[in-house]
Amino acid sequence: MAFLTSFHYVDVRGWRWVGLDNHERLFSDARLGQSFRNLFFLAGFNVLVVTTMPLIVAALIFRVKSTVAQFWWRIVFVIPIVVPAVAIILVWRWMYAADGGLNILLNLIGFGRADAQLVG
Q1: What pLDDT is stored for residue 113 in this prediction?
Q2: 64 within 8 A of 73, measured Cβ to Cβ
Q3: What string of DSSP letters covers the chain?
Q4: Helix 67-96 vs helix 101-108: angle between axes, to the nearest 10 degrees?
């Protein structure tokens, strides 16, 4: 769909065929090069930080002599990763539950229960 759309001018009134004009404008834009430089910088920085930092922290924790201290340092570094993910999962499960947030909003605006309209 994106490929097809790239050959059209699209607005609220509809689609208008423009052919390769969009592509010509894209590749003649001076900001394209800077956009790619930014993309590669951010991707490289992200890979470096996401890969390197956990390995350094794991090596430092592995060097701690006390197994109890190792356990607590692992907890300190894992809790901030796990807690937000679990919270997000719980919120989305509640939103999509049969008596959850989405159906509450639908009831408030007058659409009733979404599953009540099913013929069964």
Answers
A1: 53
A2: yes
A3: -HHHHTTEEEETTEEEE-TTHHHHHHHH-THHHHHHHHHHHHHHHHHHHHHHHHHHHHHHHHH-S-HHHHHHHHHHHHHHHHHHHHHHHHHHHHHHSTTSHHHHHHHHTT---GGGG---
A4: 30
Q: Which amino acid is at 41?
A: F
Q: Residue 7 and residue 96: Cα distance in Å, rounded? A: 37
Per-residue pLDDT of the chain (120 residues; tens, 9 = 90+): 999 999 999 999 999 999 999 999 999 999 999 999 999 999 999 999 988 988 999 999 999 999 999 999 999 988 998 999 999 999 999 999 988 888 888 888 888 755 555 444
SS3 labels along 55-87? HHHHHHHHHCCCHHHHHHHHHHHHHHHHHHHHH
pLDDT of residue 117: 53
* Whole-number Å distance between alpha carbons of 94 and 36: 39
